[in-house]
Amino acid sequence: MASDGGSVGRGTGARGGYQVRGGGRGRGGRDGGGNQQHQQQQPPHQAGLGRGRSGDHSYQPNPQVGSYQYGAAASRGYAGGVRGGGRTGGRGNWVPRSQQERPSYGHGAESVEGRGRGRARGTGGAPRGRPQRPVDAPMTEPEVDRQALPSNPPQPVPVPVMTSVTQQLASTSLSPGNKNKYNPIMRPDEGGKVSIATVRLNVNHFRVNFNPSSIIRHYDVDIRPVESPRNGRPAKLSKLQLSNIRSKLFTDNPQLPLLMTAYDGEKNIFSAVRLPEGEFKVELSDGEDLKSREYKFSIKLVNELKLYKLRDYLSKNASSIPRDILQGMDVVMKENPVMRMIPAGRCFHPTETSPEDDLGHGITASRGIQYSLKPTFQGLALCLDYSVLAFRKKMPVLEFLAEQISGFNVNNFRRFRRDVDQVLKNLKVNVTHRVTKQKYVIVGLTREDTRRVSFPDANDPQQRIRIVDYFREKYNRNITYLDIPCLDVSRNNRMNYIPMEYCVLAEGQIYPKEYLDRNAACLLKEISLARPHVRQSNICGMVQSEDGPCGGNIIQNFGIEVDTNMTSVKGRVIGPPVLKLAATKTGKMMKITVDKQTCQWNLVGKAVVQGKTIQRWGVIDFTHCERDPFRRVNSQSFIPKLTDRCRSLGMRLEEPVLYEKAGMHIFSDVNALSQLLEGVTSRVGRGNLQFLLCVMSRKDDGYKCLKWISETKIGVVTQCCLSPHANKGQDQYLANLALKINAKLGGSNVELNDRLPHFHGEGHVMFVGADVNHPGAHNKTSPSIAAVVATMNWPEANRYVARVRPQFHRKEQILEFGEMCLELVESYARLNKVKPEKIVLFRDGVSEGQFDMVLNEELMDLKSVFQKINYFPTITLIVAQKRHQTRFFPVERNDGGPNGNISPGTVVDTTIVHPFEFDFYLCSHHGSLGTSKPTHYHVLWDEHGFSSDQLQKLIYDMCFTFARCTKPVSLVPPVYYADLVAYRGRLYYQAMLERQSPPPTSSSSSSSFTSSSSLSSAASFQDWFKLHADLENMMFFV
């Protein structure tokens, strides 16, 4: 093999389909005299940076192997010339073996003989040390009735034997379609082996069987009215209209079988049989009294989805995931629920509600399903989970108002008019005075009461018709409530008024949970947090339901079947780490063993590892003006108790140097709040106050302004608390406050007794977390907020600093990722006098479809920025996912904890994971409520050569170092902190908008993030997010 960082000697290479012969002593900075029929250019981030020259190369490609394998195999023939002089050699002819001869996946290594000698410093050259991805071998497409695979499909290269850490470099392979594009790495082994127990689990993955010789035909459809629009632009048809038109056509036309097709509600139809192409005409009325309209329905075949390609990917005979096939099958799986249930985002909910789920005020909880198709090691799987949402009930509008508005009386409507308008605006209603499925959107209320409402006569615009007369003559209906307004459902400048008594709230309208009162919110939470055995029973019932994705015989018509039994897997329980705390009296370090079942620990008789000395701190009492004495903080009791608790934890907290009295009303005035904070800090001296304790009587929106001003303008750490909790003065509450304060000021609360796994040698390691916070779905302009955090101490790796920046609206890619990481590296270098040699990067909030963006854009941006300053650390990139539906259920009682959940440290890395990429599920926390949700970790890039055991143990151990609690958290801390910082950035933005003299207005600032092609145009806007220099290296966000 090529020699790597600092090694001298002989080596062995790897056997492949290449004849490489060469010897060269490098000093010329170029390849010498090579006879190379094919050369692959290395990307800048992996190209060798030394000077060297390699000998002759002879490349003979195997016609069955995709050319991109050359980069990871043949490159070994000249990598010795990288970074210094050297020569390498290799030999061997690779011949594809029959299926019976091939080694099992993930095992063994074929030796390669070769000789090489060289000197090298650092790392360079092409990534190696892992099995390569499967290759898309050329093959003829099968007919419907014959097998798809060739007789000798190419297989993944077996795992080579690792000889040293320096050989375990990046193992990401080049994509076959693009030499400079990289795919996620292959799994390095068959999964982890280390455990303190093995457990049997049921997983909510249901095996999907399909016929690989089947073809799903994809048709593009175009639906539009025949009649020309009046204003020149055709009105956009709603999804309901499109679905009704499609159903009418496919029901009336025998050539278009309804149950053999699936429609996505917009432009795509997938069919199990060939459909006639062309243009069809459909007549459909929106209601019994409305004139039928004629529509043109065009059908055009755009693709044939051959399922053997999915079979090849699942059996590791193809490298690129057939997303078009998965998308088509997903639409097929949704067809039955769409027809029988209520779609709500990615979930489906039943049309009927249960009285026991009533939340009051016209709101009900609904128990639905959410699911996805996942390619796994066992094959394609349907992952189905239980979902709970709050919906407005389907009920008459007047009854809904009586439940929603306290004291509502239809006979005294004027008193409640403003509340009614606010409650009903933008809701959808159906009507009862005529037969129609059409939904109308409420835009407001009519100015006049119903008895006075009128509209122009269509035949004689000079005449007006009273709505009371119209309903009597047209529908034979007498309106009862004449002294209340009508609902205004006008659209596209077409006047439309409907009496409230003939309107019913349409089903499927989600009620935001943040608007629920306390009792309703608690009940919804109780229903959502179903115990494991209840959740498992619900899931099994849903997968067998006639209304669900497996009902209605639709998927069967496409040759798809779902095994309705949960998948059984074996899990491993990883042992918890030994922790380190200090003794309260002596301050000596002591080993702490966590609880066996919950993995939690307590601070009784213990102190933090490094407690800060706090001599200059102040208190702002925002409860001073409260009339309720229980809302006012008892400072004579609270402050001494907090001081004593801090001291018992090893922190030296002196008496506060100032105590400022204020009222909660000041939070409604950003300028007054700013003046208060500036006045308090200036009295002590700018930069001299270590932290401010802010006591509030209740939660207030002004909290965001407090944080924005203190952290970006003044540069002082703040710790907020609520007076009801402060007055109780419970020991656990005071300890939690102390832990937050200590971490914010640079102290160390808890540390691992032993070093983190894998990194035992010299050299600093930095852990990085990155996340993006997006505005709510209703917000169309606000910027997204990117946050990156990184550790600043090694080997403790528990103190972080953060950077936060705004970027384009709903843009998931972190646009200045490299620059943000470089800032953190420079901070690390200033604090430690050395740059980290190794970086482990965790990325949060991205789906499988965004892996390519993270790997080929964000990571490459990072490496490019580092390369500009001649800095080349080794990097591992891992995506952490919490937004998935996978749940684990212990088979027997002793396979989990006493509450029926899986135990902390449970890991699953077989059967339900990716067919060949490096991923696993880890539940690192104790689930005390509901059903535990594991975190899914997916490794995209690895230059450190982690094994499954090493990486799983490293992540699990890190979950014990979260600063503000005494238990392991569910998400690896770099990601957890990045999420907190991104949310803090969202608060900064909201605070900016509330300031009387804000930075660029919300419209201008947001437009710069939606239409501008460069962030430089918004540089001044970004300055409003820039942390104060005094807080740049502090954990202010804990």
Automatic annotation (TrEMBL):
<comment type="similarity">
    <text>Belongs to the argonaute family. Ago subfamily.</text>
</comment>
<feature type="compositionally biased region" description="Gly residues">
    <location>
        <begin position="1"/>
        <end position="35"/>
    </location>
</feature>
<dbReference type="InterPro" id="IPR014811">
    <property type="entry name" value="ArgoL1"/>
</dbReference>
<dbReference type="Pfam" id="PF02170">
    <property type="entry name" value="PAZ"/>
</dbReference>
<feature type="compositionally biased region" description="Gly residues">
    <location>
        <begin position="78"/>
        <end position="92"/>
    </location>
</feature>
<feature type="compositionally biased region" description="Polar residues">
    <location>
        <begin position="57"/>
        <end position="67"/>
    </location>
</feature>
<dbReference type="InterPro" id="IPR003165">
    <property type="entry name" value="Piwi"/>
</dbReference>
<feature type="region of interest" description="Disordered">
    <location>
        <begin position="1"/>
        <end position="154"/>
    </location>
</feature>
<feature type="domain" description="Piwi">
    <location>
        <begin position="691"/>
        <end position="990"/>
    </location>
</feature>
<dbReference type="InterPro" id="IPR003100">
    <property type="entry name" value="PAZ_dom"/>
</dbReference>
<dbReference type="InterPro" id="IPR032472">
    <property type="entry name" value="ArgoL2"/>
</dbReference>
<protein>
    <recommendedName>
        <fullName>Protein argonaute 2-like</fullName>
    </recommendedName>
</protein>
<dbReference type="InterPro" id="IPR036397">
    <property type="entry name" value="RNaseH_sf"/>
</dbReference>
<keyword id="KW-0943">RNA-mediated gene silencing</keyword>
<keyword id="KW-0678">Repressor</keyword>
<dbReference type="Pfam" id="PF16486">
    <property type="entry name" value="ArgoN"/>
</dbReference>
<dbReference type="Pfam" id="PF02171">
    <property type="entry name" value="Piwi"/>
</dbReference>
<dbReference type="Pfam" id="PF16488">
    <property type="entry name" value="ArgoL2"/>
</dbReference>
<dbReference type="InterPro" id="IPR045246">
    <property type="entry name" value="Piwi_ago-like"/>
</dbReference>
<dbReference type="InterPro" id="IPR036085">
    <property type="entry name" value="PAZ_dom_sf"/>
</dbReference>
<feature type="domain" description="PAZ">
    <location>
        <begin position="396"/>
        <end position="507"/>
    </location>
</feature>
<dbReference type="InterPro" id="IPR032474">
    <property type="entry name" value="Argonaute_N"/>
</dbReference>
<feature type="compositionally biased region" description="Low complexity">
    <location>
        <begin position="36"/>
        <end position="48"/>
    </location>
</feature>
<keyword id="KW-0687">Ribonucleoprotein</keyword>
<dbReference type="InterPro" id="IPR012337">
    <property type="entry name" value="RNaseH-like_sf"/>
</dbReference>
<dbReference type="Pfam" id="PF08699">
    <property type="entry name" value="ArgoL1"/>
</dbReference>
